Amino acid sequence: MKFPIADAHCDFLYGAMEYGYDINTLRRDQVIHLPYMQQGNVKMQFFACWYDAKLKTPPLQQGLTMVDCYNRMLNANPIFVPFTKDFDPNGDKIAAVLTIEGGEVCEGSLAMLRIFKQLGVKTMTMTWNDNNELAGAAQAKRQKGLTILGREMLREMNGIGVALDVSHLSDEGIRDALEFSTRPIFASHSNARALMNAPRCLPDDLIREIALQGGVIGVNFYGPHLAPKKTVAIEDIVAHILHIVSIGGVDCCCFGSDFDGDLKNSSDYPALCEALLKAGFNEEQVSRIAYWNLHRYLSQFV
Asked: pTM of the prediction?
């Protein structure tokens, strides 16, 4: 059985901005490639506008440039359509979802958040790897939660319908978000800390609370978030999925790639689904993890 796939994270737009990536032509270390997506039966793909603090370009300009890259990709490739509640993954189209990774692109402005919403942004992380004016980052040396401005930004996100993505947020920030958000939060690409003791992985109590509030957690395939060994395998991804499901239930888990290890690109998704079947999930459960859980969650924000 070939399952439809929803992927809650990729950095293709940054590559399009900086390296000239084209969805139809492989360049440099590009892994998001339309033929690979079609081979893997990807039917929903999140495209993140990732803010890079190392660039001299101002954050807002980076964000808007990647939005332009996204729009030009959609205009040139009619196979991509914006996600809607009634999107049918059994058709020929691929649902595209525009997101922000790094709230710095709003430059502290609620007005900029509203403009990004008008441009099609559906979700946003408040941080990447560094603390900023909105919140503390998971990998920052000094841990902190949401700032006063961060809480204001969260209220505005709740009000206008932009989902809060807590991947890269500190534990304290996630606890603040769980307390203050009036809509379910989610983690686009975060794993289980019980299996890999890394700050970007979620402890069991946060997995449980995100699930209880109706959120989802996208397991990523990045080796340092999977296992303390040089080469990771599909079995390590399956182990994180099994653990997250054991804590939060089968409805709280999805995919959030960051390809690495045994899974090199989207064409490898059938192998992961087969591994989930071998691990004891039935076809209906695999279908939920592979596609429908993320579809259900995102439908609240369109």
From this structure: 0.97
